Amino acid sequence: VGTPAGMSTEARKAVQHRDQADVEFARIVAFSDGVFAIAITLLVLALEVPANTDDLWQALHGLEDDFFAYAVSFAVVGKFWLSHHRFYSGLERFDNTLMGLNLLYLAWVVLIPFSSELLGEFGDDRAATVVYAANMAAVSATFMVQIIYAYGKGLMKAEAAPQERRFAGPANYVFVAIFLASIAIAFVSVPAAQLTWLAVFLVGHRMADWLDRRL
Amino acid sequence: VGTPAGMSTEARKAVQHRDQADVEFARIVAFSDGVFAIAITLLVLALEVPANTDDLWQALHGLEDDFFAYAVSFAVVGKFWLSHHRFYSGLERFDNTLMGLNLLYLAWVVLIPFSSELLGEFGDDRAATVVYAANMAAVSATFMVQIIYAYGKGLMKAEAAPQERRFAGPANYVFVAIFLASIAIAFVSVPAAQLTWLAVFLVGHRMADWLDRRL
Amino acid sequence: VGTPAGMSTEARKAVQHRDQADVEFARIVAFSDGVFAIAITLLVLALEVPANTDDLWQALHGLEDDFFAYAVSFAVVGKFWLSHHRFYSGLERFDNTLMGLNLLYLAWVVLIPFSSELLGEFGDDRAATVVYAANMAAVSATFMVQIIYAYGKGLMKAEAAPQERRFAGPANYVFVAIFLASIAIAFVSVPAAQLTWLAVFLVGHRMADWLDRRL
Amino acid sequence: VGTPAGMSTEARKAVQHRDQADVEFARIVAFSDGVFAIAITLLVLALEVPANTDDLWQALHGLEDDFFAYAVSFAVVGKFWLSHHRFYSGLERFDNTLMGLNLLYLAWVVLIPFSSELLGEFGDDRAATVVYAANMAAVSATFMVQIIYAYGKGLMKAEAAPQERRFAGPANYVFVAIFLASIAIAFVSVPAAQLTWLAVFLVGHRMADWLDRRL
């Protein structure tokens, strides 16, 4: 695309090679984005329109837990997407292992509409809370593994900003830890476990900064 | 992508930087478009194929309200997409806050298939009409906030055509106002509230022009 | 992207303008493709997994009509997509009217999973056959209107190959005619009406060639 | 995009031609990727949230087969996507026949969520196992046909790496053979047939290498 006319054959080949790798990379990113976009949109399917009812206000009121689950899950999936987005924009190149890890990660992302619907239907149930937290922990953990692998293999861009490194690193350990901790907490108190999730939004990055200074 | 061979290192870096920002931007736009495409296509799921019936014509006739809701919602989501499309094509750059606002906006867009199905099932019910209007008002309002933010932060292109400014600005205040007004009207007359929505298509832009001359 | 370094300001602006129009155009095409991809994939939702049954072979045999509807609809939507694809690749530019027509067209495309499920459930019913044919006629007709508009407004590329013109023109009149005719035929014989649809694949292009020589 | 200013008219036309073909190609690939992304995400719809229950742990335990089917299908569709991805990145150009074959291939890919749900519901049933294996065999076979066609017509890039050739060739014969064999095995033992599928992941490439040395 736009190969300048006066280039040598070698230079042209090198550009073509880079172009092709770019296309490859763009496809993987587009596929991931597509899966995210579909998964986040399928969340709406958990909101079931009430069957014939005399009092629709009442019936909608009964969907309160479903709306709560929708809001939390949309925010969480949105945050996961932003992290994925940022991580992949810092990648210089990828390999087959990273693609496999990414598919494993997406398999957990795609499960979120199920866990979210479960939480909406059985909001005060321990099992639903544990499944939801476990799903989120698995997403965070498989993301963390991708990051560790990519840094270990030197797949990241040299100029990746320190902020991105911080974001990509400790913040995710904190996420995994929060979701795993909430599983344990759920066996004591279900509402307390669900409140823990808010910590992802409230203190996640502050704890990451704190960890960053120590590590 | 087509970096000319005879460029200085600084120039190449600058182009790469712009290229990378373009890729980032393209991903956000593509993600939004994906969510729109899925949400608009999920509208069809509200059209439930009748169960075993002796008279299919009769049964299809009973879906009249569903088809009406489908048509209105497709037109409305299409219009929202066109507005979003036009607004983002006028953006010079974006920041994290705008991305967060956009996700909040998409969270309301994704709810439309639910509100639309509700309207199809309970077309003459006040609650369904209010929920639908509230959903639309929330979409319009979160879009308006994005526009105000982007202009305030100077994220728009300098050469953004005056027509785009007009479109992005007052037209959206009018949309929010129409949908909020229809909520109030619904408590007097449900059909009148639903008729109000047509104003978005009929007088929306004329009122925007009128407002534009006054402001 | 990759504006060469030694360009004059005017030349750069012109390239940027073309770039921006290209991005706009790409978004519309990508949105349409997304809607097509989702609509074609939603066809699978019409295939309902049988509830608890003692004889699954028997139950799957009962889905015969659903599989037939799936196969026909996948082929038809695929064909519509190829036509859309080819038409848009011959477009030089677009305007707001064409975007509106395209949305109207997509609104009929998105209905296909519903019509297809209806046909699968009520395969030998006149109403289902008429709805399906009417849906297809509406898709073909709104596509034809886009083509006529684009040629009339001079939006097509000058170098659009004669083959594309032929494809874009008479072939679509034939499609609309076949689907409209099958509605009439359905009131005499439902199976005959359904057989008519095969003509789209078998004689569509031959009839288009014949028409092309006469017109 | 980015046509250098100092190019001759012929050179500019040639670049434009290549650009346009690239856009065409990108659309087909994006459409296929979209269908894959949606099909893989729809797999989650097979996981039905239990209806009101006293013991949610118990109810979730009853979904064991569904989770197994989800995991297997996600892995298989992911693998199919990687193969499709790699094959198309090795393509130099395409023609109408290849597009038709690709649509036929996608028609089988889109069926996977149905077959997968069937397997989840009727995991120990011969019919479900046969349908699943037949679906997978059809995907592999229509992919194989694309590869044979593309090599036969000389549509592949000259510089396509030997590894890609190996991957594109014998590995797929092995996949078709494994899935066809598992249909036969299912008539003796259903669990044995399902175990056969693991061979796709475990020995698929080793057998492909072995075949490669012989052929």
What does this structure look like?
4 copies of one chain form a homotetramer. By secondary structure, chain A is mostly helical. In chain A, helix 1 packs antiparallel against helix 3, helix 1 runs parallel beside helix 4 and helix 4 packs antiparallel against helix 5. Chain A is globular. Chain A is built from 9 helices and no strands. The relative contact order of chain A is 0.10. The N terminus of chain A is likely disordered. Chains in contact: A-B, A-D, B-C, B-D, C-D. The interface between A and D is large, with 36 and 39 residues.
What structural keywords apply?
globular; 78% helix; homotetramer; 215 residues; 9 helices; disordered N terminus; mainly alpha
- Strand pairing plus helix content of chain A: what structural class? mainly alpha
Strand/helix succession of chain A:
HHHHHHHHH
Termini gap of chain A: 44 Å
**CA gyration radius of chain A, whole angstroms:** 21 Å
Q: List the total number of helices of chain A.
A: 9
Strands of chain A, total number = 0
Shape designation of chain A: globular
Question: What share of residues of chain A is helical?
Answer: over 70%
Overall residue-averaged pLDDT value of chain A:
81
Low-pLDDT windows of residues of chain A = 1-5, 14-18
What portion of the residues of chain A fall into strands of 2 or more residues? under 5%
Largest interface: A-D, 36 and 39 residues
Largest sheet of chain A: none
This entry's quaternary arrangement is homotetramer
